[in-house]
Amino acid sequence: MSASSIFAWADEAEHRMCIIANAACRRRTIRTIFRTVSRLGDGVFWYALILTIPLWVGLDRLSAGLLVSLQMLVSGAIGAGLYKTIKTKLVRERPFIGLIGIECAMPPLDRYSFPSGHTLHAVLFSTIAISHVPDLAIILLPFTLLIAASRVVLGLHYPSDVIVGALLGWTIAKLSGVGQILFHVAS
Fold this sequence. Notes:
Layout: H1 3-23, H2 28-57, H3 62-90, H4 95-98, H5 117-132, H6 137-153, H7 159-186
Helix pairs in contact: 2-3, 2-5, 2-6, 3-5, 3-7, 5-6, 5-7, 6-7
């Protein structure tokens, strides 16, 4: 099997996944749930988490909690800069633009799809928060998975956009942990 046929097969498989996932939007309840999850992933949920993470870490460790909030803010800004740069360089059209049979179930925040910024930030913030407050995993892991799924279901992203967004978010979160360790050592 040649490389071009492998890529053609992968494109076709991704197209089928988009069609199947997007078909769920024909049900009003499902569309409403995924729109709501996606809107929360626009930032509202994450801003609330950043503001309350010092309380989750514990008032007795308030300075540590404030450092976690700072870690999340800086990492989030790096993530936003990275995904916006990649999007403007690679200019991959969204599935509802490039594929027949995909319904746009809510307006996108920007023009291009690769990578998914929503997924990047969901994975990034969840990874950082859970590394400091493991009990948050019961809330953050399902919410992060719903955000990732919502992007494909709503016709806004290809599965590969979501996968790469998740990998970038996880990588930034892990690197920010190294940065936090170096900051503590230097202090």
